[in-house]
Amino acid sequence: MNQRKTEISKGVDYILIIVYFILLAIGLLAIFAVTYKDGDPVLQSFIGYKTDYSKQFYYACVAMILGLFIILTDSKFFPATANLWYAGGILLLLLVFPFHSAVKGTESIIRLGGFQFQPAEFCKISVALALAKYLSLPEMDFSKPKSQLIAAIITLVPAVLTVLQKETGLALVFFAFFLVMFREGLPPIYIVIGFVAAALVITTLLVDKNILAIILTVITAIVIFFSQRQIKRDKGLLVKIILIWLLCVGVQRFGVPFYSHMFLKNIR
């Protein structure tokens, strides 16, 4: 019996579990403080599944049961079924389009009776499992463009489906997986392009697009001026700089306003 307890508790990060319960308690208290009405019985309102904090309490209980299941499950189970989890997540995202319910301006929720389910949230976990399994393959060579492309597809497919569901904020979470790829050997240029694209979206909200195009052109000219020696040794560098400039200006003038509009719409 003692040996069994040792096996179950082996590898468990108790500090992380304590932090989880602290954050959970803070979240419940915050929801309770905002939505509680004077005169409502506290205990009954918590177990009645009619208030926001009551529903959150039950969701937390379900999450703890799932967490216990994960701890007791053989660790080999999740890598072995990662592709199935990913396929299930994509299927759920596709089911949103014919079966979605409009809830508070979003169209990414499936309603099952009194239960509301957002597949994009579940898909975050399935993408993490699938990407982790792919990157941990023994024959994986992440320096090859083919491997990088497959990893990007694993991440971008659910992100695109989430954007089509008008959930740009949730879609941005999937792009965080590129930081994991960067640790695995993804060239820094892709990370730079991603941050530049994000900066363009934010800047377009604040600066006129014509002025921004002039600023981008001036920055490109400065980069070319200070890179003259490298350009003399490698003529292709100049072509790359110009292509990046054309891409930034083109996206800024045509693509970014569209995504900025979607971003603002989702915020509202």
Automatic annotation (TrEMBL):
The keyword Hydrolase does not apply. Keywords: Cell shape, Membrane, Transmembrane, Transmembrane helix. The keyword Membrane applies. It is a multi-pass membrane protein. The chain crosses the membrane at residues 12-36, 56-72, 84-103, 149-182, 188-207, 212-231, 237-259. PANTHER family: CELL CYCLE PROTEIN (PTHR30474), PEPTIDOGLYCAN GLYCOSYLTRANSFERASE MRDB (PTHR30474:SF1). This is Rod shape-determining protein RodA. It comes from the Bacteria. Signal peptide: none annotated. It is found in: Membrane.
